[in-house]
Amino acid sequence: MSERPYVIDEMISAKSIAARIEELCKEITAEYRDTDKLIVVGLLRGSFVFIADLVRELNLPVEVDFLEASSYGNAMESSREVRIFKDLRGEIEGRDVLVVEDIVDTGHTLTHVLHLLKARNPRKIKTIALLDKPSRREADIAADWIGFSIPDEFVVGYGIDYAQRNRNLPFIGKVRFVEGS
Ligand code: 5GP
Ligand code: MG
Ligand code: MG
């Protein structure tokens, strides 16, 4: 747990997130109109709020599964080492898979997860990330759909934590450390 006092400044409002999800879901619904094989895979834990809003805005039959991969501990620093803590429950062979990520930062997590899932022979695999930090990219990867492109700031809320807190904020905010208090 962090000992340094901080405040959270709102960056993307709950209303803007909802509006963007509505737009994205129109595109995604069109993309998968002809399949009954869509499985939406949420990367835990950061995507849990996003995936909940996303699937309810999709006008399609969908299955939902989760995978937990992490390159972050409780720190604010990324690491190139990606570990799988929880694998999918179901098979994805021959399925259309949509991987849902909270933030693409260095890109190592998504690269690793895609490599792992492609080896299971899905019919098609695509990715969506709520947030993208292109200036931080190290791996050559881009999500197929992106909610918002943001600068290199440490953000929280809408499922995303700082030291396991703040996931329940309805908006995306940036962490700002304050002296004293
Ligand atoms: P990558 O492997 O792309 O560097 O890392 C992606 C993961 O790092 C994200 O899914 C997220 O869990 C974490 N991450 C990246 N940027 C932030 C951030 O600003 N705030 C928080 N809480 N996690 C972040
Ligand atoms: Mg994540
Ligand atoms: Mg985290």
Shape: globular
Question: What number is the mean pLDDT?
Answer: 93
Percentage beta strand: 25-35%
CATH architecture: 3-Layer(aba) Sandwich
Largest sheet at a glance? 6 strands, mixed
Helix/strand-derived category reads alpha/beta
CATH topology: Rossmann fold
How many domain modules? 1
Give the helix proportion (percent range): 10-25%
Keywords: Cytoplasm, Glycosyltransferase, Magnesium, Metal-binding, Nucleotide-binding, Purine salvage, Transferase
Main location: cytoplasm
Protein name: Hypoxanthine phosphoribosyltransferase
Domain Phosphoribosyltransferase: 16-162
Which properties best describe this structure?
alpha/beta; 3-stranded antiparallel β-sheet; 3 helices; 22% helix; binds guanosine-5'-monophosphate
Can you walk me through this structure?
The chain has one domain: Rossmann fold, CATH 3.40.50. Helices cover 22% and strands 31% of the residues. The mean pLDDT is 93. Bound molecules: guanosine-5'-monophosphate (5GP) and magnesium ion (2 copies). One magnesium ion binds next to β5. Its cofactor is Mg(2+). It catalyses: GMP + diphosphate = guanine + 5-phospho-alpha-D-ribose 1-diphosphate; IMP + diphosphate = hypoxanthine + 5-phospho-alpha-D-ribose 1-diphosphate. Pathway: Purine metabolism; IMP biosynthesis via salvage pathway; IMP from hypoxanthine: step 1/1. It comes from Shimia marina.
